[in-house]
Amino acid sequence: MVKKAILFDLDNTLYEYEPAHKKALRKVYRVLNKAINISSKKFMRLYNLSRLEIHQELSGTASSHNRTLYFQRLVEKTHNTVESKLILKLSDAYWNTFLKNMKLKKGVLSTLKELKRTGFKIVIISDLTTKIQLKKLLVLKINDYIDFLATSEEAGSEKPHSIMFLLALNKIKCLPNESVMVGDNKKADISGANALGIDTILISKQKGNFKKELEDYSKPNYLIKEIPELLKIIKDLQKK
Ligand SMILES: [Mg+2]
Q1: Residue 129 CA, ligand 1 centroid: distance in Å
Q2: What is the pLDDT of residues 47-94, one digit of tens each?
Q3: In this structure, how many other beta carbons lie within 10 angstroms of the beta carbon of residue 113?
Q4: Distance (Å, whole) CA 51 – CA 22
Q5: Helix, strand or coil, per DSSP, at residue 201
Q6: Is 226 helix (H, G, I), strand (E, B) or coil?
Q7: Beta-carbon neighbour count of residue 111 at 10 Å?
Q8: What's this model's pTM, rounded to 2 decimal places?
Q9: Which of these, 197, 196, 195, 220, lies nearest to 209 by C-alpha position?
Q10: Distance, CA 211 to ligand 1 centroid (Å)?
């Protein structure tokens, strides 16, 4: 089947999430410490607890990743009330630092350029709120190579729910077997796409030993270490 579209996960697939997140969280700690003098150990404990609570309460929705909700909950624990100025300050500190520290993974830009040049439609399919993902596309300077963005905020459910993939496919008017999904998360990206019959590529530094795994939807069709490797896979798929 001729492939017409590539669906990409964004976070930790096209750029490294952890370094930006860690720097952003450190900045949040410094801002909070200035306000109320709190140890970093206590900060991390309260942050993790707040994040866990919001995750549980809003599981499966884009809001479960909303940092403003995490910091609101954290400040409720430290102040036992709403401190609007402080909550917004922490949220802004987080995202400003995060966006400043994002870096595309090796070969991402040239791969996107090559895919565009050869006529592929490119969709970002991501479990977060639209506004922040739009900012990421701009800061990473990849907006010009992306045809559409589909977020869980827009779809109402997160990956691996089929609605995420169907929303993306509808935007580009492609069938599942005309597209390829590329992501770093076996459950969200790979099993969600496999369930619809979309070919899947997992990006992972770990060695894949899929023989041990069950032949279920979380098994990717292909495993790559770096994004440019997908060009050859897609070329081979065109011949099938
Ligand atoms: Mg990801």
Answers
A1: 14
A2: 999 999 999 999 999 999 999 999 999 999 999 999 999 999 999 999
A3: 13
A4: 15
A5: strand
A6: coil
A7: 24
A8: 0.94
A9: 220
A10: 23
Q: What is the DSSP letter of 195?
A: T
Render pLDDT for 179-236 as a digit per residue (tens, 0 to 9): 999 999 999 999 999 999 999 999 998 776 665 555 688 899 999 999 999 999 999 9
Q: How far is the CA of 80 from the centre of ligand 1 (A)?
A: 34
Ligand 1 center to 36 CA (angstroms): 34
Q: What is the Cα–Cα distance from 83 to 211, expressed in whole angstroms?
A: 52
Instruction: Point out the catalytic residue in the list 9, 184, 189, 199.
Output: 9
What whole-number distance in Å separates Cα of residue 124 and Cα of residue 189? 11
Does the annotation count 144 as an active-site position?
A: no
Give the list of residues 6+ apart from residue 126 with CB closer than 8 angstroms, or none. Answer: 9, 10, 11, 133, 149, 150, 151, 152
Give the Cα separation of 226 and 28 in Å (integer). 31
Residue 45 in tokens = 């404990």
Q: Residue 88: CB partners within 8 Å, gap ≥ 6?
A: 68
147 is catalytic: no
Could you give phi then psi for residue 180, rounded to 5 degrees? -130, 135
